[in-house]
Amino acid sequence: MNHKYLLGIDIGTTGTKILLIDNAGGIIAEVNKTATLISLQSNWAEEDPLEWWENVCVGIPECLKLGNVDSANIVGIGVSGMVPTTILVDKNGKPLRLSIQQNDARTFIEIDEFKAWVDEKDVFLRTGSAITQQSIGPKLLWLSKNEPDIFKEAVWVMGSYDYINFLLTGKATLEQNWALESGLYDIHKKDWDDQLLQLSKITRNQLPEVHLPSDVIGNVSASAAALTGLKTGTPVVAGSADHVASAFSVGVKKNGDLLIKLGGAGDILYSLDSLAINESLFLDYHVIPGLYLINGCMASSGSIIKWFRDQFGAGNDYPALDLEAWNIPAGSEGLVLLPYFIGEKTPIFDPLARGIFFGLSLQHTRAHLYHAILEGISYGFYHHIQVLKEAGFDISRVRVANGGARSKLWRQVTSDVIGLPLEEVANHPGSSLGAAFVAGMGVGEFSDWEEIEKFIHLKPSTIPDLDRHEKYQKLFHLYRDLYLTNQPNFIKLASIEGLSE
């Protein structure tokens, strides 16, 4: 029997994942390669697109070998990735500089300039995107002012997975969610907004054609085949934003479904069947045509846990830290964390916000601090849920995914804080599965989006402790007050450190 396989590639913040699946619901093999987040200055977040490509070139042959699969039997490739990253590409197809990441917060001055030049409310109604640290326009403006020689050499502006697609096929394209999340795209006209392009100092010619996730945008080139071990001519689809692919691949596809992603950044995604925009949240197209995802992203989440482990964990790994903090009571005995370590995206959109441990005393141990970090991140998720409820969105079920979902303590703290059961997907590979499935839809190996259910297996739900939830509701109000009270101080601190005018 001649088996057919699909390849999913995910360009993530901390790693590149290569996943091989078959069309019967089997996950055949997966390989992970480390990626490096570079922060040369406070508020900066950059990565090297050529490191992603090297990971792809090394990881694909390893994945094929691990799965004992011939590349001739791969019928489609899908790539997902961080969005909206900013990559300037020259006439030779090379990145002119490091990628500016979606959580980079250097552009607070340019954000203010954009807001002064346009009617902010009108821009939001046209694009569905507020002008924030995530917006591509202010980043392009920053580049034009601070790196003019590099900026003028840019032939294309691309995102993370779009650039990998370009290297695979030689075709410059953009997927629809990069366009939407860029803040430069009119969601009603489904076209670029000329006023915003002008303010961003770029032209339409620098933005490749926009495609739906399952559109076949090209085929693996001979040069890419030589580097990756793939077969020349293998179809490649446009792919998807990583959080969108991840949400779909855990079964978030019906009105009222909610996903909480316990990853390096904290994503929360809500599925709906009609267009709706909210000034405190982002909007994405679902991979399923006609559906949408209204969502939020906390700039730092699991990255805070990693920082704490590396700086204060004394060699302990995450399970050991979890065990140490397991019996810490709700509220960490009077300790509250604001998790704004690199500013914050949704729902407050404040690039100058900073992390705070509030209530420290001599009784607090490392376990208390670790537990308070989990709680502070969970307050951030609960804040998003409150925004959704205030907008009239009902939540039917909550699923949890990403690496942090393997932590029983993190799951339990999250469930207790939000007061809702969490359905964990067993052995879930994440965005790469969604990317591979989208490729399958694009090349006709799958005929219905419901077939994703073949890949989804649930573990027993994490049930909230309602007594702890009651206490967390009181602490959540304190959490919100801490930010509102300290907001002027964040501005003062940025001024003292020379980070704002």
Q: What would you call the shape?
A: globular
The whole-angstrom Rg is 22 Å
With strands numbered from the N-terminus, the spatial order across the biggest sheet is: 18-19-17-16-22-23
CATH class of the largest domain: Alpha Beta
Q: Helical amount among residues, as a percent range?
A: 25-40%
Within CATH, the superfamily of the largest domain carries the name: ATPase, nucleotide binding domain
Low-confidence stretches: none
SS elements, strand count: 23
Question: How far apart, in Å, are the first and last alpha carbons?
Answer: 67 Å
State the CATH architecture of the largest domain: 2-Layer Sandwich
- CATH names the topology of the largest domain as Nucleotidyltransferase, domain 5
The major sheet is characterized as: 6 strands, mixed
> How many domain regions?
2
Per DSSP, the total helix count is 16
On the 0 to 100 scale, the average pLDDT is 95
Strand content: 15-25%
Q: Which structural class should the secondary elements be placed in?
A: alpha/beta
Please tell me about this protein's structure.
- The chain has helices spanning 49-67, 108-117, 120-127, 136-146, 148-151, 160-169, 176-182, 194-200, 222-228, 242-249, 302-312, 318-325, 366-390, 408-418, 431-443, 466-496, and strands at 5-11, 15-22, 27-34, 46-47, 74-81, 87-89, 99-100, 156-158, 173-175, 185-186, 191-192, 209-211, 216-219, 235-237, 240-241, 257-262, 266-272, 282-285, 292-298, 336-338, 356-358, 397-401, 423-424.
- It has 16 helices and 23 strands.
- It folds into 2 domains: 5-243, ATPase, nucleotide binding domain (Nucleotidyltransferase, domain 5), CATH 3.30.420.40; 251-424 and 465-501, ATPase, nucleotide binding domain (Nucleotidyltransferase, domain 5), CATH 3.30.420.
- Strand 22 (397-401), helix 14 (408-418) and strand 23 form a beta-alpha-beta unit.
- By secondary structure, it is of the alpha/beta class.
- It is globular and about 65 Å long.
- The longest helix is centred in the C-terminal third of the chain and has 31 residues, at 466-496.
